[in-house]
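Dear colleagues,

For the upcoming journal club I promised to circulate an example of a predicted protein-ligand complex. I picked one with guanosine-5'-triphosphate because it came up in last month's discussion. The inputs are reproduced below in full, followed by the predicted structure.
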Amino acid sequence: MAKTRIPVIVVAGFLGSGKTTLLNHLLRNTRGARIGVIVNDFGSVNIDAMMVAGQVDSMMSLSNGCLCCAVDVSDMDAMLDKLAHRSSDLDVIVVEASGLAEPRNMIRLVVGSENEFVTYGGLVLVVDAVEFDATCERHPELEQHVALADLVLLNKVDRIDSDTHDELLSRLCRLNSRAAVVSTEHARIDPALLFDIPERPGPQPGEQLTLDQLLYEHDEDDHTHLHDGYDAITFETTDALHPRALVDFLENQPPGVFRIKGYVRVAAGLRTSTYLVHTVGDHIRFDPAGRADAASDGTRLVVIGADLDTDDVRDRLGRCVATEPVSGDAMYAIHRFTPR
Ligand SMILES: Nc1nc2c(ncn2[C@@H]2O[C@H](COP(=O)(O)OP(=O)(O)OP(=O)(O)O)[C@@H](O)[C@H]2O)c(=O)[nH]1
């Protein structure tokens, strides 16, 4: 089967909002995922320690200038090419934009990449809960950045009261009703919300825990559970789905959804086909599933997000099941989102 493309996640946020804190948190809680990192400079990321512990698998840094201003698509491609190639075993690449970067430019660099082994994995915007109002006054473009985000981390909620918290949540929701908003302290978010956690075998009895596992368990002891802020809903059916109904669901996702992934079996004309589907925010991708794929005899989708209405998500997906014969050209709805 073709190599799965490596998602490239852009992390943006105004100066001091907590981007580096998020990156360090993800690197300490990789849960076995292999992470490649592109940052402006490694000054504040504890890269040496991470390297020694085997937490960071590959890194690229732009030591002078701002990633978004100084880099054009070919520069970004040169960095991505070093991380993502045929023999790369990375699960995800995280690009940390500098605090003044324009997220739209960063997205353009990733989406415009000609590297065939990567796919855009979404924009994570870190918002400083304490400074949001003041920053918006000085830099109104911050509101547009919120509108672009696929996942908003409302960070530093330890420093605001619950009324302010509620107000901020509704304001962010007004600015972007589509994105999942997760409130965090010190950017502690479950990495599973951002990237797939690989199913690699855990330590056998008598085996030592890796530093990753030790760090992860340590975090779990000290703080609220990382997965408190989000839901993962699984939808399974052996009935084939209607391609147009499915695409309509994916293009008009329920509020709070951040990612959708899994296998779908769709029917059109006399054919049923199975695809691997992956969405993050507005970005939808269908890859034909290989024949030998064990999961290819039905639909199994996982919908991940914050404050999801489980019944609504299941009902809407249930309504995607094809109840009548579907015309063959309905498959074009999906072909719009298959790789060239
Ligand atoms: N109280 C509190 N402090 C936080 C939280 N998250 C981050 N900080 C602190 O805020 C400061 C800025 O965090 P960084 O992660 O460096 O922010 P950044 O977005 O990478 O900053 P730039 O690189 O300057 O854009 C640091 O001192 C962090 O320790 C939080 O949730 N609560």
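Two points we might discuss: Residues 51-55, 208-225 have pLDDT under 50 and may be disordered. The first helix runs from residue 19 to 28.

See you all on Thursday,
B. R.
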